[in-house]
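Can't paste images in this forum, so I'm doing it all in text. The chain is below; anyone willing to post the predicted structure tokens underneath?
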Amino acid sequence: MYIKAKSDKTWRFWGLYVHVCKKETLQAAYEMAKRNNGAPGIDGVTFEAIEERGVGTFLQEVRDELVSGTYRPTRNRRKEIPKESGKVASLPATASRSKGDGRRTESPAIGRRPTPE
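Text version of the structure:
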């Protein structure tokens, strides 16, 4: 996909967005973030809070926003971590909502979104 996107600037990856919006994809992304012991996001929402409300409800809300085109990922907060070498590593802290959606930002290569199944 990278090579195609670089070689043909007019090409649009219509099928990709449909897959991002699938319930199965969102569920898998949520499970991966949780399995990796993801910390609460910049929004302070924990996995426990999401599970209290219902993972299905949370993922359906994210999916509805993706499908309707109203989803906007929360801006990342940067956390500086001192390293043994004296240097500092700057790591992003994403919002919980952005962790479970399977993507970080909107890609210009996607273009206009089709309606997912």
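The chain is about 45% helix and 10% strand. Residues 102-114 have pLDDT under 50 and may be disordered.
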